[in-house]
Amino acid sequence: MTEVSSDRAQEVASLQKTLGYEFSDLKLLNKALTHKSYVNEINENLKHNERFEFLGDSVLDILVSDYLIHQFTDYAEGTLSKIRAAVVNESCLAGLARKIDLGKYLLLGKGENLSGGREKPSILANAFEAVAGALFKDGGLESASRVFLPLLEEEISKFAKSWSFRDFKSDLQEITQNKLVCTPSYKVVNEMGPDHAKEFEVNVKIKNKVMGKGFGKSKKEAEQAAAKIALENFSDSSSAS
User: Residue 49 sits in which domain range?
Assistant: First the structure.
């Protein structure tokens, strides 16, 4: 790997300050910031960042997965997978790359640079992964967690709170099967309003005890709402014990 010039070291010093991490081997960071277009057009002696992208993708997956497992104990595996996929994807990672102004540090070929490569979501997301991979190589998983988890937490929280990522009925069933060896049952207890604007009220029972009540414009929506309440009740009882 080619040595990093003093000018380049000075360039990336502000990125290291933003990350709150100083690389022991600056060549790793420089490689993470080197796009293949730069290697092809400008400096064939350098190595581009695609192998670090591959590594960084796994590093971010591990960080997000570990955080989800510890912070969202009442979420089913399928829901956790959906949240992780939403966070560790091109759009989200490109946004995080912009937050740390990663684009200005990239080494790009002239053509890629002129065509707006520093703002392309795919290039930014890949560079973000590559920097994660490089930092992992330089300082290990603990350092990677310290640097990248604060950046990821806000995105994780945003997606975790979104109803669109949760199947509350599946989550509730998984918990009751694991902890109580039973499955919830749902019953429509009331239908309100005219046919064109009907609202349903549903109770969910666990071992013959009503654990949640939900309302919705369809039976499915009401069941999901009831399951959500039941999960909250489970969470409250677990915290109390």
Answer: 6-165
Q: Model-level pTM greater than 0.85? A: no
* CA nearest to 167, candidates 225, 207, 214, 210: 225
Whole-angstrom distance, CA of residue 174 vs CA of residue 228: 13
> 153 and 187 share a domain?
no
Q: Which residues on adjacent β-strands are paired with residue 205?
A: 185, 210
Provide Rg for the chain, Cα atoms: 24
On whether both 25 and 132 belong to a single domain, the answer is yes
Domain count along the chain: 2
Residue 238 has, within 13 A of its CA and on its CB side, a CA count of 12
Write down the catalytic residue from 7, 22, 53, 57.
57
Annotation marks residue 25 as catalytic? no
Question: Does 1 map to a domain?
Answer: no
* CA-to-CA dists, residue 57 to 106, 155, 174, 208, angstroms: 18, 16, 29, 46
Of 165, 199, 229, the position where a domain reaches its end is 165
Are 5 and 107 in contact by the 8 Å Cβ rule? The answer is no
Note the pLDDT tens digit of each residue in 111-149: 999 999 999 999 999 999 999 999 999 999 999 999 999
Q: Which residue among 7, 11, 50, 129 is the active-site one?
A: 129
- Quick: pLDDT tens for 8-28: 999 999 999 999 999 999 999
- In the three-class reduction of DSSP (H, G, I as helix; E, B as strand; rest coil), residue 151 is classed as helix
Region at 101 (left for phi over 0; alpha for psi -120 to 50; beta for the rest)? left
Calpha distance 135→99 (Å, rounded): 18
Is 57 designated active site? yes
